[in-house]
Amino acid sequence: MITNKIKLRQVCLTFIAFTLAIKIIILPSLTASFADQSLWISAFINFSIDGATLFFILKMTDKFKGLSFYQILRENVGETLTKIIMFLYCVYFILKAYVPIMEQKSFIEISLYETTHVVFIFLPIFLIACFFSYKGIKTVGRLADLSVWFTLFAVTVLIALSSPIADFSNLLPLFKVPFSKVTAGSYNTQLWYFDSTYMLFFMGAFKEERLKKTKILLSYGAVAVITIIFFAVLYGEFGPLTPRQYFAPIKMGKYYLSLSNSGRIDYFAGFALAIVCVFAVTLPLVFATLCLSHTFNFKHKIIPCIIVNGFSAILFFFTQDFFYETFKLVQKYALFFMLFVAYTLPLCMLFFKKGRSKS
Questions:
Q1: Residue 206, φ and ψ in degrees, nearest 5
Q2: Is the pTM of this model over 0.90?
């Protein structure tokens, strides 16, 4: 059993602070490029799949009280198969971090007008990720406590500035877009979802409280609602031009007339999101490190941190100028693997025996 546990509140805030921030940079314009004004329906489909998986995992936390996902696997399928599964999740989390890190590079360069060489600006992100990976899940919880305020501030400012100038008739008729385009918008943006997988590795890591399932599901439901509203407001503001608004936080609200008198306060929202996204893109690497530490017997816990983040840094360094090509490559060759690991592997817990929490 994990003794250094985080609070249930921090699990909820991790979803709100980090998964929300990642979804409002490139994702809205990318979804609109496939689904047009039905981009919100594509997002709803993906959130529904993740929400259902999250509900299932939360039910499993009741079945396997106090046990981590690693302990559940080890008790039911043995040490060897458990290590193989943990390695699959390690690869999965590295892939999950890869495209958002590339996205974050472009976002920082554009929003902060950064021209310094990538080695000095973006590779330190992996040093931050290495530190968080070494400190573990408890540090993730503390970061969520702080970051959630930046995320909510940014989203509130952007929606408040854009709503008065948005023409929501751009979203009408609601169901005109062919369903094939809606599903294409869902399928081709899956890389920005898979949020329920985090809950697998929060199993046994947080203190039990009343109504835990309700609180976590409401938190993720809030992420879904806010994201869909954000998508709708963005499309209301830009209409058919939405697919060109690649970095929404620095595009939204700047045409609001009051800004000419008060100054570009929308920049503060963009800067806040840039800060939060640095932490958000490192989150999968923290879990990748945890999985790798369960796969091999390392002499020191810093070793898996260096391996995961060092490999990710090298991969990033050699591909950092090819975001679109990288996205298409991962989408084409890795998405089915990620779908299997995120949504199919957890179902094995249905067939496992109940275990007892071990101290």
A1: -125, 155
A2: yes
